[in-house]
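Wed. Picked up where I left off yesterday with Calbindin. The coffee machine is broken again, so keeping this brief.
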Amino acid sequence: MAESHLQSSLISASQFFEIWLHFDADGSGYLEGKELQNLIQELQQARKKAGLELSPEMKSFVDQYAHRDDGKIGIVELAHVLPTEENFLLLFRCQQLKSCEEFMKTWRKYDTDHSGFIETEELKNFLKDLLEKANKTVDDTKLAEYTDLMLKLFDTNNDGKLELTEMARLLPVQENFLLKFQGVKMCGKEFNKAFELYDQDLDSNNIPTYKKSIMALSDGGKLYRTDLALILCAEDN
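Structure written out below (tokens, as returned):
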């Protein structure tokens, strides 16, 4: 199935989802190592079998990652490589999702109650707003399809809503500093000492950027404990 999709001149949102599931074997939300190499190999084979040249985007992608052991891409990067339907692709190209700071501001707009989640209806409105900002409109059926696919792509714990760290996968990998905290579970004293714990891991050259991005979650300059817990995946947030 993935082969036929990779041979398409235009990949639908549902086909993109099937391609992603095929290659993201461990369900991590990222393609790296063997997964990434499998994608490159199968992409080249599928296009060759169909008598098609690699598009400029595909060629650039292959050149960048074919001979690297440390390559890692997310859904955003793949959406830019494959010929995905325009409106769905726009969700990954939106200006609000090009930096962690803008992403945090967008999150705050929809998580106004500091619950730490964006639920289905809120996600639908979020996607609708992104498309309207790009001067695109879709009917309710297509919007519902996009919402459902976004949940399937990003809702890693299958609870029907998205946490900050799940939704942050809409960011390009190199823009997503939240990956520094991936898989972290803290509570009590560990949580209170979070910044001490991560001071050695974070790139000191980027500390001002990290701080600015985190403070984009604040409410009038005030950062709630629950906001910080969203980033650090605290068990008691």
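Quick read: The chain has 14 helices and four strands.
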